[in-house]
Amino acid sequence: MADDDSLSDDDDQLDIPDNTKHILSIQLGQVDIDCWFHSPYIDAEDGSNEKNRVIEKLFICEYCLRYFLNNRKYHQHMNECTLRHPPGRKIYEDPNGLCIYEVDGTASQLYCQCLCLLAKLFLERKTIYFDVSPFLFYILVESDKRMKNVQHIIGYFSKEKLSDECYNLACLMILPHYQRQGFGRFLISLSYELTKLEKKTGTPEKPLSALGQMTYKSYWHSTILIKLEEYRRSQIHATVIQLSIDTGICIDDVIQTLIDLRIAHPGTSIIESNYKQNEARDHRNRRRFKSNMDIDQCDDNNNNTLSPTSVLTIDEDLLHTKMIRLTNSKSSLKSDQHNFDPKYLRFTNRR
Fold first, then answer.
1. CA 339: distance to chain centroid?
2. Is 30 or 336 the better-scoring residue by pLDDT?
3. 205 is an active site residue
4. pTM for the complete prediction?
5. The one catalytic residue among 62, 102, 205, 316
6. β strands within 151-238, DSSP E
7. Quick one: how far is CA 160 from the chain centroid?
């Protein structure tokens, strides 16, 4: 799991051990990128795997993702390649020139295989390269500001077409030169929006990497805080199930996030679950005098008592404090952070 941004997000770079890679760099379009890990690219000319050979630079067409060891053959291909954006159907386009294509691993097998090989250069744990048929791929691109109908790949995520575990994301990769601009969070937001359109809740495939865990925790925390604030303003007495449905986040992840935030507690009835500032404040003050061990035990108890049907009592003071911090964090981000806006989705039929 690799990628995204500064709000404790996902694309702070890992320490890359040099002995894990055999391709030192790639040229993708006009960009040279240093590689991080080994990827099992195969030499099309002799069919050999290049793992034991050091390749100074691999040339990759940024449109169809075919790859070449030879610069001359690469330029010859670029003169002949007719693609200028990913295959599949465009499902998202915003005024900033960001587009997303949904690509079926069965219909565009070679493209998706090449995409997985590219991703492996920057993902340590990726294992699926060639069996792409069970997956849908969501490719994020940006439109070229000078050339019409030309789009440059930023990153992607994949998901299983059918998942018994309700996984809504299998693999996520943002190319290094596009990292720390919010694109990882952008794609995570899309994955949950697709989940809500399917009238489901979802979760990423586990286990997550350390960076993936940080990214998702940041997303879950901010998303649930914003939804709780909406409930507070509307005086809605929400259950854990309702919070899960409204955010698309699976119940287990919702419960764990509420425990992490220490902001919501279960009530046994609608009356008891009204937004009672004084009661919530007293509860919080009592916890301040507990030892760290007692607090951990309190969290364990919360985990046992927060159930899908629990009606939530919200600590308004703590919610207000956390919302201020969230607002300040967003305002301190770089101006080039990109946000997903579901109103630009262009779905007519869902599978």
1. 12
2. 30
3. yes
4. 0.81
5. 205
6. 151-160, 167-169, 171-174, 203-204
7. 15
